[in-house]
Fold this sequence. Notes:
Elements lengths: L1 H8 L1 H4 L8 H18 L5
Amino acid sequence: MELMRGVRSQLTELISGLAGQDLQPMSLGLSHSLSRYKLKFSADK
Length: 45
């Protein structure tokens, strides 16, 4: 978990051409996709 936080905090330096304002839509899209995946393959359904 700490590794992911470190990567996320340095993401704009690691990827050239990535601006800070691009991180919010990327994060929102990733969380949306992950939650849809979890619901699709949920054993509780």
